[in-house]
Amino acid sequence: MPMRALASDHMPSFLRFCAVGAVGFGIDAGLLTALLAAFPGAVIGARLASILAALTATWALNRRLTFGSHDPKRLAEWSRFAGVNGLGAVLNFTAYASLLHAVPGLAPLVALTAGSALALVFNYLGSRRFVFLGGPSGAS
User: Fold this and answer.
1) Domains in the chain, number
2) Residue 83 forms part of a structural domain
């Protein structure tokens, strides 16, 4: 999907948020897969690293494409995003770790998918209401 189409005013912000989330999921899953290939026993450490990478990428994309933020205090905005989405990541990570513990042999990407789905709505509402305050699609 071209970036211009993703940023279109005709596409509701939740759908743009989901599209950015899909990119973040790709980063998350790709990095998790690569790290697990390099360090097979590091399922927890690899997941933490993949969450941080995806969090930073989705902040940058949501800032521009979803919420059109013009907040000059980018570090403060990133901090709010990290806080809100960090709580979402705790939900995500808890589901991931719980599923891996409860279902021996479960593929880590299946647990990742379940955790990501759980955190989606929480992250969107928190981002819309508390993070992106300097744009046309920000807090209302």
Assistant:
1) 1
2) yes
Report the C-alpha gap between 57 and 111 in whole angstroms.
Answer: 21
State the CB neighbour count (10 A cutoff) for residue 137.
19
The one-letter amino acid code at 51 reads I
Residue found by looking up tokens 């809100």 in the block:
84
Residue 7 lies in a domain: no
Two structure tokens written together for 37: 């290939």
C-alpha dihedral sign at 45, 49, 52, 57: negative
pLDDT tens digits for the chain (140 residues)?
444 544 555 569 999 999 999 999 899 999 999 999 999 999 999 999 998 899 889 999 999 999 998 888 888 998 999 999 889 989 989 999 999 999 999 999 999 889 988 888 889 989 999 999 866 554 44
